[in-house]
Amino acid sequence: MPNFGVVTRDHVISTLDEYDERGADDFLSGYGFGDGREQVLRHEGRSYDSKAILGVAHRYATGTVASDSAFTDGTEDAEKILSALGFDVASVQPAEVVDRPATGEWRESAEVGVSETQAAWAAAAREVLLDAASRYQGVVTYKDLSQEVQYRAGIRTKQPMRHWIGGVLDLVTADSAKREEPLLSSLCVNIEGSVGEGYAAAVAAATGESPSDPDVHAAGERLACYRHFEATDLPRGGGAPTLMPKLAAARERARKAAIAERPITKCPKCNLQVPTSGACDYCD
To answer: ScoMcrA-like N-terminal head domain spans which residues (predicted)?
Structure first.
């Protein structure tokens, strides 16, 4: 029998890193898990199969994978254990894996029409993003949002997400501005932790101001959302605006690489590095 009591948060983080490095298909098939997504662990804007993550985290803790068959109560055990370790675990019913949507019957977007479809999806997106705003540092990925709005609205499409999710978020942004609320669209990020290219244009259209750095702007809006909607676990003092960890790490690597590539100017007399002033501290 697996001993999940020895699994720590660090073991789970190591498992998430391995999942990201290997990719979902290789990770799940390699450890013998199916793609069961009734309960997902959400972390840094991405969603993971909760059972698979906990099962492999057990390997990091004990050396042995807790297989799919080791879970005695479906995904409920994984939900309780991972939640106790401080992770966000939630039910997800994406459009492509459920027989019936929340409304009872599916409608096709091509038959409903563009305007009605986008309005319905935008209303559903607001609900999903409000849920994210209720948890400090909660976010939703573009993929999860696109699946969830179809399920909640009962309207599905065969079009790739990239062709329509931006228009839905434009409506959400405009609605937030009209309500004089922080922008809920700031809570939707891609797998790199960025709000993406369309965010700045949506903000400009809704507020008249175009952010010079969309992700920095979104970080401020996310914090405002957590405060405005009274997120759980909000730090004393109200927290601080932060980039998503994966994006922040990528920017830091780029910054260090840029510094390393800068040419070093040396004094022709003493051969020591010359400061940015251009004058040698010892010879000039």
So the answer is: 7-90
| Domain interval for residue 239 | 95-243
DSSP 8-state class, residue 264: P
Residue with tokens 């939900």: 79
**The pTM of the whole model exceeds 0.85:** no
CA distances from residue 10 to 16, 166, 248 in whole angstroms, order as listed = 10, 35, 20
β-strand pairing of 188-189 with 140-141? parallel
Residue 234, burial from CB neighbour count under 10 angstroms (0-12, 13-18, 19+): middle
Task: Look at residues 37, 71, 91 and tell me which one is the last residue of a structural domain.
Answer: 91
In a domain, 277, yes or no: no
142 domain residue, yes or no: yes
Residues 82 and 102 grouped into a single domain: no
- Are residues 190 and 79 part of one domain? no
- Cα dihedral 140, 142, 148, 154 sign: positive
Tens-place pLDDT, residues 141-195: 898 899 899 999 999 999 999 999 999 999 999 999 999 999 999 999 998 889 9
283 in any annotated domain: no
